[in-house]
Structures are given as C-alpha cells and as structure tokens.
Amino acid sequence: VLRAAELFYRAQRVTLHEGALLLADAETIEVHEQNRHASPLLNMLGGPAVTELQVLEEKNACSYFGRSDAFDMVLGLGDVDSPARRGLAAAIEAWIRHLLAIEVRVEPVERTEDDDWAWFVGLDAEATRIGNALWTGEDLDPEAAKRIIALFRLDFSEFDEVRPEVGARPIWLIMAMTSDRMVRMKPQNLIAGLPLRAATPAS
C-alpha cells in the first residue's frame, strides 16, 4: 500500500519490460539514465534503466521501510488481482476516508461493466482527457486506449451524500500514462471529482 501511495505525490515512469508493466519513480530513473550517459559502455549494453532497480515483491517487501525515502523500488502493476493494484485501491479508499470522512470500496477491474456510465474520475490529466472523450461518445484513438494502464470501480457504502442521478451506480476510476510514458496522478481529483451532493448552507 505504501509504495502504491507514492503515486499520489511522485511522478512515475512506465516501462513495459518482458511483458510486465513497471512503474518507477521518475526522478530516480532520470538519475540512472544520466549515469548511463556518463558510461557509454553501460549505455550501449544495459537494458532499460528500470532493470537496475528492484521490483517490489513479497520476498523483499520488508526492505521497503528502510529505503522508502530513496524511492528506488519498482512497482509492478501486474494483473487485476496483483498486490500493486489492490494496494493502490486501498490507498484511494484511505485518502477519501481521511479527507471526506466517507467510506467507499475501490476494486481493481479489467474493464468497465456498462457503456452507460453514471460517473467517472480521471486519476490524472491524461485519464481525464480520455474519459471525457468516452463520456461524450467520441471514437477513442487506438493509441490513446493503449495508454490506459489501470481501471477501478468505486462504490459508496452509503448513498445519502451521493447525487441522486448517480445513486448506487458505480464510479469508474481511470489511470493513464502520457505519450512519453509518464504517470502524474492528481489525487485532488478524487476529492473534487466525486459526485457528492452540494453542502446545504447552514440556516
């Protein structure tokens, strides 16, 4: 959960390596790439810079706490049931609970279950752009569709504070990378973008 939560405040570089979708801290990757440029042989023979970093796994998870400030562990998104996706879902739940005092359930999904969305939230600017295109019925560019890297379903535990036109229907959360394979999450979208009823002014 903690490594996934780094997406809330640290830009990530996305790399597809040997069939795995890997997210690494963008600043850390930049430093490694600069070091490679200083060594022509390493630059020529080495694989992607992300391969120089450890991928967070169950067997090395305990080492994260001693090096979390280094931002040098890679998050492998894996499939829909992967610890990384479930960790990000848990971080989103905690963020909303902390800032809005609302209980929600967030679940990683492979695809949306209906074409008639009640609501969506883009977790970053690229995802918002893609979501808006889908919302208005535009044909999505195939390359844009490939930039979607994660989908989540959000359900409210209570519906008293949800807009009536949404009610009990699910909210779809979209995460996407830019054309240069960056993810810059905007967690404020989870606060400003949820379909909550407007607060009633005190009389």
In short:
The protein is α+β, with helices and mostly antiparallel strands and 203 residues long. It is 32% helix and 22% strand.
Written account of the structure:
With about 200 residues, the chain is α+β, with helices and mostly antiparallel strands. It folds into two domains: about 1-75, no CATH class; about 85-190, no CATH class. The chain has helices spanning about 1-5, 25-35, 40-45, 65, 85-100, 125-135, 140-145, 190, and strands at about 10-15, 20-25, 55, 75, 105-110, 120, 150-155, 170-175, 180-185. A five-stranded mixed beta sheet has the order 3-4-2-1-9. Strands 5-7-8-6 form a four-stranded mixed beta sheet, sandwiched between helices. A hairpin with a 2-residue loop joins strand 1 (about 10-15) and strand 2. The protein starts with a helix and ends in an 11-residue tail after the last helix. The model has no long low-confidence stretch (mean pLDDT about 85).
As laid out across the biggest beta sheet, the strand order is 3-4-2-1-9
Beta-strand percent range = 15-25%
Shape: globular
Please give the domain count: 2
Radius of gyration: 19 Å
Largest sheet: 5 strands, mixed
Low-confidence stretches: none
pLDDT averaged over residues: 86
Distance between the termini: 42 Å
State the helical fraction: 25-40%
- Succession of helices and strands: HEEHHEHEHEEHHEEEH
Class per helix and strand makeup: alpha+beta
Total number of strands: 9
| Helical stretch tally | 8
